[in-house]
Design a protein that fits this description.
Strand 3 and strand 4 form a beta hairpin. The chain contains 2 helices and 11 strands; from the N terminus they run βαβββαβββββββ. The chain has 156 residues and is mainly beta. Strands 1, 2, 3, 4, 5, 6, 7, 8, 9, 10 and 11 form an 11-stranded antiparallel sheet that branches.
């Protein structure tokens, strides 16, 4: 069973998307995370502080490029997370916080291996995917700098 679906590719704007990621400031680290390592991040739309059992939701950053892309690939999104992984960065197997609806639409910027329910998927530069984040998933250690921009919906 295929747990990941490719819904498109960023092709014509891929280099400008790479350039945009390299010029992001105020990226935050997650030094206390038990899941993510070697990663910084930045929220758009809403920022979600992943506390258990209740997440804290604050206004996030605003960016016209993120808004246009999100509206095109995931209409109705209200929360986007830009992540940068340095070489060796990864995420241990986990399911996403219950504050989110399960569907995630993600733009992969760079190369990575994502495992969903122990099935490995090679992600290509510019690939746009969707998957159910309530199924256990993990990002295997990346070999080179990798970015992702994931779009979500916060549950009402």
């Amino acid at each position: 069973m295929n747990l990941l679906e490719t819904v498109g590719h960023v092709r014509t704007d891929l280099q400008s998307l790479h350039d945009w990621t390299e010029h992001q400031f105020r990226m935050k680290s997650m030094s206390s995370s038990r899941v993510a390592s070697g990663r910084t991040h930045k929220w758009f739309g809403y920022e979600v502080i992943l506390l258990k059992p209740n997440a804290k939701i604050n206004p996030g950053n605003w960016d016209e490029r993120v808004n246009r892309l999100g509206d095109r690939i995931f209409p109705g999104w209200n929360c986007a997370l830009l992540c940068h992984y340095r070489p060796g960065g990864c995420m241990k197997q986990h399911t996403d916080h219950s504050v989110f609806e399960p569907l995630v639409v993600l733009v992969n910027i760079g190369h990575a291996t994502l495992s969903i329910d122990n099935q490995e998927y090679q992600l290509q530069d510019g690939q746009v995917i969707k998957f159910d984040s309530s199924i256990p998933h993990e990002l295997l250690p990346v070999l080179s700098d990798r970015w992702s921009l994931s779009f979500r919906r916060i549950k009402p």
